[in-house]
Amino acid sequence: MARTPLMAGxxxxxxxxxxxxxxxxxxxxxxxxxxxxxxxxxxxxxxxFTDIRTVQSLVDADSLPIKYGAQDVSIxxxxxxxxxxxxxxxxxLGCTFVIVGHSERRQYHxxxxxxxxxKAKKVLDAGMTPIMCCGEALEIRKAGTHVQFVxxxxxxxxxxxxxxxxxxxxxxYEPIWAIGTGExxxxxxxxxxxxxxxxxxxxxxxASTAQxxxxxxxxxxxxxxxxxxxxxxxxxxxxxxxxxxxxDEFAKIVTYQK
Length: 258
Ligand code: PGA
Hints:
Bound molecules: 2-phosphoglycolic acid
Shape: globular
Distance between the termini: 28 Å
Strand content: 5-15%
Order of helices and strands: EHEHEHEHHEHHHEHHEHEH
Strand order of the largest sheet: 1-2-3-4-5-6-7-8
Mean pLDDT: 96
Largest sheet: 8 strands, parallel, barrel
Radius of gyration: 17 Å
C-alpha cells in the first residue's frame, strides 16, 4: 500500500494567534488556487500551543482540509505540572499530530529517547499521531557513525510501542547540522538514513510495519530542494521549519514546485 506523503510545518516559537490565522488562511487559499489534492499529499501546521484554538476555529469554520497539531506534550494527564499541556487538552482542540523529541527539546530541555518514547505512547493512547524526531549532530556525522547513532535513537524510542502503533506513527529524520542552517542534507544523505530507519523498523517489528510507517526528512527544506528529497524512495514527506512560515513558500513545498 502506498504511503501518503505528509508535509508538516513546524512553526516553532513563531507567530501569535492573529498571525497564525492569517498564515492558515493564506495557505488554504494558495493551495486551493493551485488545485492541491490533499488526499495525495497531506498538509499539517504545527503552531505554538497559544495558536491552536485559533487554528481549530478556522479549520472548522471553513472545513479546511489542513490538519494541525502541537510541538510537544506532557507524559502526565493532569495535576501539578506547571507549564505543561496534556494529550487530553490537545485532543479537545482537534489536534491530529504531536511532534515529540525535536532536537531543540532534547538540547534545551534535556529530553531523552526514553522520555520521547513515553510521549509517543501517550500521544497514540489519546488517538493522535506522534511525529517522532531523531537525528545526529555534526560531530557524529563527521565521525561517520550517524546511521548507527540514529538507529540507537529509533531502538530506544520505539521500545514501548506495538507494531500497530508504529505503523500509524510518523518518524522525522532531522540531522541537527541541517536544521535552520541552510545546510540541507543531500537527497542521498536523506535516503541513506531514512532507508536504514525503515529497515530497522522491519527488523524490530515486521515488513508490513516497515512499509506502513511514514518517514519524513527535515532540515532546511525549501521549495528549491524539496523535489529531489521527495524523489527518494524512503522519504515520505518533510518536517519544515523556517520555510513553513510563509504561505507561498510552504505551498510550493507542499506541491513540490521549484
Ligand atoms: P528548518 O527546521 O526547516 O528551519 O531547518 C526544521 C525543523 O527543525 O523541524
